[in-house]
Write a structure and sequence with these properties.
single chain; 397 residues; flat; PPR_rpt; TPR-like_helical_dom_sf; repeat; Pentatricopeptide repeat
């Protein structure tokens, strides 16, 4: 479902479905030792072990290889043959680039990037964790950054665009904002790159520095866009400065930037979290008046707010009222109401809501469904549990 809509239920998915996702680190160490000593026979040695690798296990292997500065190229080539779906994930490819970086093997890095470009792989910030941001002199780290950027620009494609953005994000995460701006100076000043810095500074509550950055952007002809303002809006709401947030919305409109669904979602979520449902509804009315389609998170905020205020019936009515809009997210919202009732101990109400939504042809969220079924079984309500399973089976054919 994403966006933490079901909170602790999704965090406890292993308990619900009985899935173990832990990595066997002894197994990781054994494989790393094979890679370390395998040489040209690595493929044969790995094949002889009849490995059954998961994505998580592959990631952990790469992390250890990178930490120990062990070349991963032969292992990656073996993965290309045996596990092609795993080896071309963004995360694994990024870790492979990081491995080249640790070894200062930029020739291999370029070869790998060219292969990733063909597969339209996008890099994440893990690709650049080898950069000694905190331990090197400014001159030294800038030279290394230039080499990385030269490689990305030479290859181009998805690796270049995603790589530059991820590099800026990684530098910002380590508070190296000057180096992030150095990257922008080399690659070209544009709003999307500046927005990464704006977003990270807002996340770190460095809003005072953001205003200077906005002036710098304007000076270079990079006019702040809706994403820029939404980062600021989120920070103002998070820090409880609602009146300033409202003034910012007015400033946006005066500058010709129209608030979007995310802008209003930020305002509504904050209003709901602070128990100001009346203000949240005023913002929602503005969405409707402007013809903007609300985000699913906006509806979730209202539902959770009603429950927090003890208005459980109002939450269900809110979801019922959305039926006429034929939202694709209706099944998520009904499932959420059922789950929140279950958390309050309203087992039969939760079961009834799942029945109602299935009668409407809406498939419940599986985690919520199975949680209700198991709770019914534990409460000696086996017939209700069987009926619920029978109804749900229509959606699994």
């Amino acid at each position: 479902m994403g966006d933490d809509i079901f909170g602790d239920l999704e965090r406890n998915v292993n308990c619900v479905e009985g899935v173990k996702s832990e990595v066997n680190y002894k197994h990781v160490s054994e494989i790393v030792e094979v890679i370390r000593s395998g040489g040209s026979d690595l493929g044969l040695l790995l094949d002889s072990r009849s490995l059954n690798l998961s994505g998580r296990l592959v990631v952990e292997i790469f992390r250890v290889l990178n930490y120990d500065r062990v070349p991963a190229l032969h292992f990656f080539k073996w993965l290309q043959v045996r596990y092609p779906k795993l080896c071309y994930s963004s995360h694994v490819c990024s870790l492979m680039i990081c491995n080249c970086g640790w070894l200062e093997d930029y020739e291999t890095m370029i070869v790998m990037l060219k292969g990733f470009r063909v597969k339209r792989v996008c890099l994440d910030d893990k690709a650049f964790e080898f950069l000694p941001v905190l331990t090197s002199s400014q001159a030294s780290i800038k030279d290394t950054i230039r080499r990385v950027l030269d490689a990305l620009v030479e290859v181009g494609g998805s690796c270049c665009g995603s790589g530059i953005c991820s590099l800026i994000k990684m530098l910002c995460s380590k508070d190296s904002f000057e180096l992030a701006e150095f990257v922008i100076e080399i690659t070209g000043k544009n709003v999307s790159h500046y927005n990464i810095i704006v977003g990270e500074k807002c996340r770190k509550c460095l809003v005072g520095e953001v205003h200077g950055l906005l002036e710098e952007m304007r000076g270079f002809g990079c006019i702040p866009n809706i994403s820029t303002y939404n980062y600021l809006l989120s920070n103002l709401c998070t820090t409880g400065r609602m009146s300033e947030a409202c003034r910012l919305v007015k400033l946006m409109q005066e500058s010709g930037t129209t608030p979007d669904a995310l802008s209003f979602d930020i305002l509504i979520q904050y209003s709901c979290k602070t128990g100001k449902l009346d203000i949240a509804h005023q913002f929602y009315n503005q969405i409707v008046h402007r013809g903007i389609k609300p985000r699913i998170q906006t509806h979730v905020a209202f539902v959770k707010s009603y429950f927090s205020a003890g208005n459980c019936d109002e939450a269900l009515k809110y979801v019922h009222d959305l039926d006429d809009q034929h939202l694709q997210s209706s099944n998520m919202l009904y499932s959420l109401v059922a789950y929140l009732h279950l958390k309050k101990g309203h087992l039969i109400v939760a079961q009834s809501i799942l029945n109602q939504m299935m009668d409407k042809g809406l498939k419940p969220n599986f985690l919520v469904f199975i949680k209700v079924v198991k709770r019914l079984q534990k409460s000696c309500k086996g017939s209700l549990a069987r009926d619920l399973r029978s109804r749900f089976s229509r959606f699994t054919v």
